[in-house]
Amino acid sequence: MIRLLTVLASVNFLSACDTSEDPAPRSGGAIAGCMTRAYDDIGGPFELIDQTGEARTETDFMDRPTLIYFGFTYCPDVCPSTLVAVNQAYRRLPEGVAPPNTLLISIDPERDTSEALASYVSSDVFPDNLVGLTGSPQAIADVADRFFVDFQKIETPESLSTYTMDHTSLLYLMDENWQLRTFFTEPENNPSLIAECLAQHLD
How many Å apart are CA 94 and CA 98, to the nearest integer? Predict the structure, then answer.
């Protein structure tokens, strides 16, 4: 988290889009700051396994832009809230604008097997095109490092799950060349902002 916060602190981007009065997204036009948060050192390749057990790399998702979230299936609040917000954002896209590819990369490979992800991503309240990705601890650490995502295991012996994961919570939008186009902070609270910004890039 410290590395990414250093990057975030270096530029004023928190007012990325005008979210006053929950504006309806539209195609075309310019929104100041919406697509100006591109850093060459954020993002990179990966070799992971999807919820069907198939090996996947970033090249499988370069047919169109891709929205990426790092989370885990045992996450009690922020992760599911973020994925619900993404689904709400997609429903607000202008007619004729298809949503981007959507990836959930698990930062808890110990529990998030392909089978666990298959059940999780099939939720009716999440995006229909949500793909879950997992892999070895090293593979997850590698891709997290490329996206400046920090995470750590927190033991909670008093709970049924016995531990939880503390992690960076951002949404990343990669373009068709797998270059970072923008990212969203506090995504669970901003479906309108996400929709507005996506409408600009997906037009």
Answer: 9
Residue with tokens 């666990």: 116
The CATH number of the domain covering residues in 52-202 = 3.40.30.10
**Do residues 154 and 46 make contact, with C-beta atoms less than 8 angstroms apart?**
no
- Return the exposure string of 134-164: e unless at least 16 CB atoms fall within 10 Å of the residue's CB, then b: bbeeebbebbbeebbbbbeeeeeeeeeeeeb
CB-based burial of residue 61 (10 Å sphere; 0-12 exposed, 13-18 middle, 19+ buried)?
A: buried
State pLDDT tens for residues 119-160.
999 999 999 999 999 999 999 999 999 999 999 999 998 888
Going 199 to 100 to 66 to 108, the CA torsion angle's sign is positive
Among 113, 167, 102, residue whose Cα is nearest residue 135: 113
pLDDT one-digit tens code per residue, 49-71: 999 999 999 999 999 999 999 99
Query: Could you identify the residue written with the tokens 């808890």?
Result: 108
Residue type at 99 in one-letter notation: P
Question: What are the domain boundaries of the chain?
Answer: 52-202
Beta bridge partners of 174: 66, 180
Distances (CA, A) of 174 to 51, 63, 179, 198: 21, 11, 5, 11
Instruction: Name beta bridge partners: 184.
Output: 171
